[in-house]
Amino acid sequence: MSPWSEGVEVAVKILRPGTRPLVVLDLFILRGAAQKFFDAFARKNLGCPATLLVDEFAEKLLEAGPAGCCSPHYRVPLNSRDEGSKCVG
Predict the structure, then answer these.
(1) In degrees rounded to 5, what are phi and psi of residue 20?
(2) H-helix or E-strand spanning residue 43
(3) Burial class (CB in 10 A: 0-12, 13-18, 19+), 51
(4) Which residues lie closer than 8 Å to 66 by C-beta, 6 or more apart?
């Protein structure tokens, strides 16, 4: 969390063009590893398969943003364009 100029704490999501396919591949690998190495542990201790945890994590990680967000806690400050830049470096 990061303090906003209005004094409100906000989460910052950095968008990096062209990285989505790499993130999806990493999630696919993570899901396979979770199934192979942690499934029995998760079922015994958490009552659900490890793949379900990875799937939930992936869903949140790949959320679309303001248009796809249904949370009442999601807020884009009015001056958000003034606070950032288009430079990704």
Answers:
(1) -55, -45
(2) helix 39-46
(3) middle
(4) 74, 76
* Residue 23: CA count within 13 A, CB half-sphere: 14
Amino acid at the residue 70: C
| Every domain of the chain and the residues it spans | 15-71
- pLDDT value at residue 9: 77
Asked if 14 contacts 6 with a C-beta cutoff of 8 angstroms, the reply is no
Q: What token pair was written down for 75?
A: 């807020």
3-state secondary structure of 17: coil
Q: What is the block-wise mean pLDDT of the chain (89 residues), using blocks of 10 residues?
A: 64 74 92 96 96 92 59 52 49
Query: What integer pLDDT is reported at residue 4 of this predicted model?
Result: 57
